[in-house]
Amino acid sequence: MELQTLTYIVVGLTFALYIGIAVWARASTTGEFYAAGRGVHPVANGMATAADWMSAASFISMAGIIAFQGYDASLFLMGWTGGYVLLAMLLAPYLRKFGKFTVPEFIGDRFYSKTARIVAVICLIVASLTYVIGQMKGIGVAFGRFLEVDYDTGLYTGMAIVFFYAVLGGMKGITYTQIAQYCVLIMAYTIPAIFISLQLTGNPIPQLGLFSNTVADGTPLLAKLDQTIVDLGFAQYTAQKTNTLNLVLYTFSLMIGTAGLPHVIIRFFTVPKVKDARSSAGWALVFISILYTTAPAVGAMAMLNLANTVQPGPVAAADGALEYEARPQWFKNWETTGLLTFEDKNGNGRVEYRKGDSNELKVDRDIMVLANPEIAK
Amino acid sequence: MSTQNTSGMAYWKANVRLITISLVIWAVCSYGFGIILRPLLAGIKIGGTDLGFWFAQQGSMIVFLVLIFFYAYKMNQLDRQFDVHED
C-alpha cells in the first residue's frame, strides 16, 4: 500500500472517530453544551484538560529548547506546571462553586456590573483569538501535509471538521475527543523516549534514565553530556547561563499565564462538585507531568546523541568530526526541509558542530523531538 | 454576630491558612531550590549533577502534584468539619 493511501485511511479513521464521538455525545441543553452537563469524572476531566492545554509548544518545541539551553529551559517546565497549583487553590474551586458557565458571567455578577462583564468578554475574545491564530496555523500546516493540499485548503478542511464536532457535541463531545487525543499523544511521546533511555542508560524509565549512568562507560549521563558539549565549546548543559532575576520573572509570568487560560478554566465547570474541581486540577497535572518529566530526558538524550553523531572522534583530531559524505539518512531527510543546514566553512568535508563563528551545522530546535528516534539509531 | 457567620469566618481563615502554607512550599521548591538557592544546594550531588538541577527539571513538578492533592484532601476535611460539603 502506498504511504499516501495509508495516510488517508489513518486520518479518515481519526475524523470518523471524532465525529462519531460528537454525534454520540451531542448536546441537547445549555448545561450540556457549555459544561458537559457537569457530569465529567475528575480523572477524565484532568486528562481532557491535559490534552487541551498541551499543544505543539509542549509536544514538539519544548524538549528541543531544553536540548539546546539545558538548565535554563527549566523555566518552561516549572512555569507551565506551577500555574496549576495557583489554579487549583485560587481559582478553580471558587469558579465552580459559583455555578455559572463562563468567567465573564462570574465577573458580571460578582461586581454587580454589566460593564465589568463586557470588559471580561473583550479580554476573553482577545486572549482566545490570539491563541486560536497559533493553533489554526498548526491545523493548516498539519492538514496541508497529510492531505497533500495547499495550506489554505488544509486550514479550511480542518476548521470545518473542528466546527462540526464542537457545535454538535459541545463540551461533552470535546471532552471525549480530547481524552482520545491524550492517549495518542502520550504514547507517541513516551514510547521513543523509553527506547532511547534504555539504549543509553539501560533504564526503561526516561525520568530515572536522565539521572543514571550511561551503559557506554558508566559515567552519569548528565556529566557525560556536560563534558561532550564543553568539548565542542558550549557552556555546560547543567549550568545556569541567564541571570537569576530573569529566570524567576520568566517562570512567574508563565505560571500566572497558565492559571489564567480561558480554555483551561472552563474545564473546571464540567465536573459535578467543588470537591471534584480541586482534585481535577491535580489529575490534569498528573497527565501533564507524564509528558513534562519525560521532556528533559528527551532533550538531554537527543543532545547527547546529536553531539556524538556529528563528533564521533576527539575534537582536537583532524578526523574527529563526521564526514559529510558519510552522513546518515536522517541528516539528508532534514536537509531537504531546510531545518538542518551544513556549510563547509573550512572546506575539509567534515561536519564541525562548534560554538561560535566556526560552527558549520545549524539545527532548528523544533526538529529535535521528531528527529530524536532516528538520531538514536 | 450569628453562629453562621463565626463558623464561616473560621472556615475562611482555615482555608487561607492552608493556601498560605501550600504556596510557601510551592515557591520555596520552584523559585527557591530550583533557581535562587541552587548554589547552596550545589554540594548535594544527584545522578551526575546537583540537587538544584533536579528540583528545576523534575522535583518541582513532583512537589506541585503532591501539593494539589494534599490541598484537595485537607479542603475536603475542612468542608466536612464546617459542614459545607456537598455530599
From TrEMBL, chain B:
Keywords for the protein's UniProt record, in alphabetical order: Membrane, Transmembrane, Transmembrane helix
Domain Sodium symporter small subunit: 10-85
InterPro entries named in the record: Na_symporter_ssu
Pfam families: DUF4212
Transmembrane segments: 21-41, 53-73
Protein name: DUF4212 domain-containing protein
Keyword Manganese: no
Organism encoding this protein: Sedimenticola selenatireducens
